[in-house]
Amino acid sequence: MMMLLWVLLWAGVFVLMMRFGCGAHMAHAGHASAMQMGGGGDAPSGPSGQAESSAVDPVCGMPVPADQGYAEVYQGRLLRFCSRRCLDAFDVAPHRYAG
User: Fold this and answer.
1) HSE-CB of 86 using CA atoms within 13 angstroms
2) pLDDT digits (tens, 9 = 90+) for 7-36
């Protein structure tokens, strides 16, 4: 019985760390909050202080480096997305974001 409690405790700690701790950046959790607070995330900055990226996510407006994120071709245009959540939001209503 005690072993089961330890396993459940460690499983809970693991879930919390992946959701809010060290694994949260892998799923871009809360990227909108970071952008609203003025943080640019981990995007590299060029000499002018602007983030070097090849595209801007049409859903959240976050810069997306060419070697990261997700991509989709919509009406002959390549669109890049910072996360799966933004890609899914675009797929639900592309006319809303592809203006």
Assistant:
1) 26
2) 999 988 887 777 766 544 554 444 444 444
Closest by Cα among 64, 66, 61, 62 to 99: 61
Residue 7 forms beta bridges with which residues? none
| Class level of CATH domain 51-99 | mainly beta
Read off the tokens for 13: 């700690």
CB atoms within 10 A of CB 73: 8
| Tens-digit pLDDT profile for residues 47-76 | 444 445 478 999 998 898 888 888 899 999
Closest C-alpha to 83, from 33, 37, 26, 35 = 26
67, 44 Cβ separation under 8 angstroms: no
Amino acid at 90: F
Two tokens, residue 80: 């890049």
- H or E stretch at 89: helix 84-92
Q: Where in the chain is the domain with CATH 2.30.170?
A: 51-99
